[in-house]
Structures are given as structure tokens and as C-alpha cells.
Amino acid sequence: MLDNDIERVIYSRDQIQQRVKELGKQLTHDYAGNKNLVVVDVLTGASLFTIDLLEHMDVYCRMDFVDVSSYKGGTSSTGTVTLLHDLKNDIKGKDVLICEDIVDTGRTLKFLMDLLDGRGANSIKVCTMLDKPSGRLVDAKADYVGFNVPNEFLVGYGLDYDGYYRNLPYVGVLKPEVYEHHND
């Protein structure tokens, strides 16, 4: 049923899992011996990615969550980032790895990095499943990138439109007619 709303698949389940495994190995290498790592999952979109990634990271780490919003159910960022759920733990002196589903305009990422930096994080790195450099409006960059993606509206593997499609096991382009009717 959901598949009928997808114009085309950009990355298959197998491609995603292979890339997540590679990222996990790289992070295991880069954070070897570190016992101050806090992995911050950006809810809700990055949750599937973060969980899969953690399975491939053989490091000591704690996990925490933030929820921010800049879309409000639409297909483009409103330009305003709102913190909906804050971290439960103090990150002062900790090494932070932010896990994102997609870096698009960069506003959410810049907001989070500034917030965590202001709280005294020792270091802040970013791991994103998808990076859309052509959508960037502010200076924000991921340190670890699963895939660079075209400037199209993507759903699946955590990415949503109006709360739906997160459960697709792949990343695909949503047919424009699906969201054009909702924006009227």
C-alpha cells in the first residue's frame, strides 16, 4: 500500500544496512577507548538509523534523545527550530555524537550543535544517514555521512511525510501528488 506512493527507491534495505555497518566500523575505530561518548538520537526520524548503527558500534557509550522540529508536517522547513524534548543527562565534558536521519537546510543541526556546545560538550560530531548538500541554507556539516542525496522529498527508514512512511525499509522519493493535495 505505502509502496504505491513512492516514485522510485533511492536506497534499498540492503544498501542501507551495508552502509550502516561501514559507519559503525568507522565509529568503533574513531571512538576506541573512549568512555565519555554520548550518542544523541534526534527523534523521531533518526531512531531506526541510530539503533541499527549502535548494533555495529563496539564502544562504550550512553544514549540520550532530543526532539526538535522545523517542518510542522509540511514538506519544507519553516525556518524556525523548536526544542520539543531535551536531553535527560548532563553532557558537560562528554564527547557527543549526534545521529540524524537527514541534514537538509542545516538549521536543525546548527541549532543542536550550538545548544550542546553551550552546555560544555568536550566534542561534538555528527553522523547522518542522509546528507542533502543542495538544500543547505546555513553552515552545518556532518562528520560521517551514509549517503549524499538529491534535492527531492524523501521518505522511508525513519523519514516521514506528515508522520507516515517512517516504517518503509528503504529510502524513496515520495510522489508529488501525495503531498501536493495536502498543502492546498
Automatic annotation (TrEMBL):
Q: Is this entry keyworded DNA-binding?
A: no
Localisation: Cytoplasm
As cofactor, the record names: Mg(2+)
Q: In which pathway does it act?
A: Purine metabolism; IMP biosynthesis via salvage pathway; IMP from hypoxanthine: step 1/1; Purine metabolism; GMP biosynthesis via salvage pathway; GMP from guanine: step 1/1
Q: Report a single Gene Ontology molecular function.
A: nucleotide binding
Where in the numbering of this chain does the Phosphoribosyltransferase domain appear?
Answer: 13-161
Cellular component terms, GO, for this chain's entry?
cytosol
What CDD domains does UniProt report for this protein, alphabetically? PRTases_typeI
Its Enzyme Commission number(s) read: 2.4.2.8
Query: Per the UniProt entry, what is one GO biological process?
Result: GMP salvage
Q: Which UniProt keywords apply?
A: Cytoplasm, Glycosyltransferase, Magnesium, Metal-binding, Nucleotide-binding, Purine salvage, Transferase
Keyword Transferase attached: yes
The chemistry this enzyme catalyses reads:
GMP + diphosphate = guanine + 5-phospho-alpha-D-ribose 1-diphosphate; IMP + diphosphate = hypoxanthine + 5-phospho-alpha-D-ribose 1-diphosphate
Q: Give, as one word, the top-level EC class.
A: transferase
- Which family is this sequence assigned to? Belongs to the purine/pyrimidine phosphoribosyltransferase family.
Record's function text: Purine salvage pathway enzyme that catalyzes the transfer of the ribosyl-5-phosphate group from 5-phospho-alpha-D-ribose 1-diphosphate (PRPP) to the N9 position of the 6-oxopurines hypoxanthine and guanine to form the corresponding ribonucleotides IMP (inosine 5'-monophosphate) and GMP (guanosine 5'-monophosphate), with the release of PPi.
Q: What is this protein called?
A: Hypoxanthine phosphoribosyltransferase
Question: Per the UniProt entry, what species is this protein from, by scientific name?
Answer: Limosilactobacillus secaliphilus
The opening ranks of the lineage are: Bacteria, Bacillati, Bacillota, Bacilli, Lactobacillales
